[in-house]
Write a structure and sequence with these properties.
Layout (H helix, E strand, L loop, with lengths): L2 H23 L9 H57 L4 H18 L17 H9 L6 H27 L6 H21 L4 H24 L12 H9 L3
Length: 251
């Protein structure tokens, strides 16, 4: 389910809870709305609000950490790709085909991850090999001297680091925000908004304020889910590092 859809559900649930509370106000016995009852309700809702704030903070921190990890790994991988290209260039002209393969691989990754930034034309994905294929081609080189042997070893080391980073990111891919956390959080907030409506006067200003609060919470939920999916949606990590690497490959 998309982040917008989940945020819309959150907004609808909180708004409905607030309006339900306002509706129930006229059906609750008067003695249940005494000052003493209100004080106890405020204490209970304060506890729920504190727990909801803690869970919301944990979700935000987790999503931000995931987003920053992907962003950092993307920058580091772009730097390693440039370093790999320069290492192969120093090896000799026999690595020209391998360097072209790397350039096509980076171009395909950019076109696949950021299709909205494509500058035109098409890309043949069938011509794009896996990183493992590049490692095999580097291993198949026949160095003629100690310098080339050192450069081959360095290229294999960089390729291994890129492979390790790739598998690490793949294992971290997906939604790291626990669904149960979201369900419990929405339930707590719904109860909280119902209590707001229960003790609030019935007028347009109060209704507008409660709806705005519900929209704000839905907006924060949307941002959390967007950060938790750094390669899709509206809030993606930047393609600038890989584009910079692509511009400097083959030089």
């Amino acid at each position: 389910m998309s982040a917008i859809a989940i945020a819309s559900i959150v907004f609808a649930a909180l708004s409905a809870s607030a309006l339900l509370g306002m509706f129930l106000r006229g059906h609750v016995p008067v003695d249940h709305l005494s000052t003493e009852s209100k004080d106890v309700m405020k204490l209970a809702m304060g506890l729920i609000a504190t727990m909801a704030a803690l869970v919301l903070g944990l979700l935000t921190a987790s999503a931000k950490s995931s987003f920053d990890t992907w962003n950092t790994e993307m920058k580091e991988n772009a730097a390693k790709i440039i370093l790999l290209d320069r290492t192969l260039a120093h090896y000799g002209p026999e690595t020209k085909d391998i360097r072209e393969v790397i350039r096509r691989m980076v171009a395909f990754r950019i076109a696949q991850t950021w299709p909205e930034e494509r500058s035109g034309g098409t890309f043949d994905s069938s011509a794009t090999p896996a990183v493992e294929g590049i490692e095999e081609q580097i291993r198949a080189l026949s160095p003629q001297n100690d310098t080339q042997r050192a450069l081959q070893a360095k290229a294999l080391q960089i390729t291994g680091e890129l492979l390790g980073a790739r598998w690490l990111l793949l294992t971290q891919a997906g939604n790291s925000t626990p669904v149960l956390f979201l369900v419990v959080l929405i339930f707590w907030l719904s109860v909280l908004f119902a209590s707001f409506g229960l003790f609030a006067p019935r007028n347009a200003t109060v209704v507008a304020a409660l709806l705005f609060c519900a929209l704000s919470v839905a907006g924060s939920t949307f941002l959390i889910l967007e950060m938790d999916r750094p390669l899709e949606g509206m809030l993606k990590i930047s393609s600038a590092p890989l584009r910079y690497a692509l511009d400097h490959l083959g030089q």
